[in-house]
TrEMBL record:
<keyword id="KW-0819">tRNA processing</keyword>
<feature type="domain" description="tRNA-splicing endonuclease subunit Sen54 N-terminal">
    <location>
        <begin position="37"/>
        <end position="89"/>
    </location>
</feature>
<protein>
    <submittedName>
        <fullName>Uncharacterized protein isoform X2</fullName>
    </submittedName>
</protein>
<dbReference type="Pfam" id="PF12928">
    <property type="entry name" value="tRNA_int_end_N2"/>
</dbReference>
<dbReference type="InterPro" id="IPR024337">
    <property type="entry name" value="tRNA_splic_suSen54"/>
</dbReference>
<dbReference type="GO" id="GO:0000214">
    <property type="term" value="C:tRNA-intron endonuclease complex"/>
</dbReference>
<comment type="similarity">
    <text>Belongs to the SEN54 family.</text>
</comment>
<dbReference type="InterPro" id="IPR024336">
    <property type="entry name" value="tRNA_splic_suSen54_N"/>
</dbReference>
<dbReference type="GO" id="GO:0000379">
    <property type="term" value="P:tRNA-type intron splice site recognition and cleavage"/>
</dbReference>
Length: 258
């Protein structure tokens, strides 16, 4: 039984990797090259983030989080900027990291992000929205980033599910025992395009985006989210075969027929 679980998990991992690598060629040609405004960043493995060392262009007004005067990019931001030709990323030895190497870092699940989340982020940014991770302040004065403090809320399960090369059968049992499966989790705060946006005072998002990976939320769950977010709208997003779909729910009262 355990052996079958191990084989199944390895098959899922290999399938996910093949799908990701097939899409790389498509993504490389999806955006124009902004070679005149190329910023530079250094990848920090302990943080699974890129620290920006040279800023160029206006995109930094709405991208990256600021801690103790330094700007850091989550992996979804890093990949998006590389794909549009606006960022070069170096490793600790000042060696240029290729896009393929960063895709592999996305696949290892240590960044608090996974492939579907990146596709959602890229889709929204391509439409001009301002997008930030839910629950992570854009700017905090006098605070440095610590390892493991900037994961997406609710993404621990996703990270564990992506680590699909168990060392032994006992680790598989422990994985399932510790895993808390949730169908939806808050991923991003999304703001309408705004030339006056400020990281120091972003205001309430236009909506909070939840990622749905399995079945739709129940009525009870949706009502709980309405109470949680109050006046802030929330939407759901689902990714299937690279296609990003957004949906929301509205209350409707049907008239009582005689």
């Amino acid at each position: 039984m355990i052996g079958e679980v191990v084989q199944t998990m390895r098959f899922i991992f290999k399938t996910e990797m093949r799908t990701m690598m097939k899409r790389i060629v498509t993504h490389l040609g999806s955006y124009p090259n902004y070679s005149l405004d190329i910023s530079k960043a250094r990848w920090v493995d302990d943080l699974a983030m890129a620290e920006v060392v040279e800023k160029k262009g206006k995109m930094w007004v709405t991208m990256g989080i600021v801690r103790n005067g330094n700007t850091y990019c989550f992996i979804e931001e890093t990949l998006f900027l590389i794909e549009i030709g606006a960022l070069h990323v170096l490793d600790g030895n000042d060696i240029h990291l290729s896009l393929k190497e960063l895709y592999e870092k996305l696949s290892n699940g240590k960044s608090g992000c996974y492939w579907e989340l990146f596709e959602v982020y890229k889709h929204l940014k391509s439409l001009g929205y301002v997008v930030g991770r839910h629950g992570i302040p854009w700017s905090v004065k006098g605070q440095q980033i610590k390892s493991g403090t900037c994961s997406l809320e609710g993404s621990q399960e996703s990270n564990e599910m992506l680590e699909l090369e168990p060392k032994d059968e006992n680790s598989v049992i422990e994985l399932f025992n510790n895993m808390q499966i949730t169908d939806v989790s808050p991923a991003f705060n999304v703001y309408l395009p705004n030339s006056k946006f400020r990281k120091s005072s972003p205001g309430d998002p236009s909506f909070v985006l939840y990622i749905s990976r399995c079945s739709p939320s129940s009525r009870v769950e949706i009502e709980a989210l309405e109470i949680k977010h109050g006046a802030i709208p929330f939407k759901f997003c689902h990714v299937e075969n690279g296609r990003v779909s957004f949906f929301s729910f509205a209350k409707t009262e049907l008239p009582i027929l005689p």
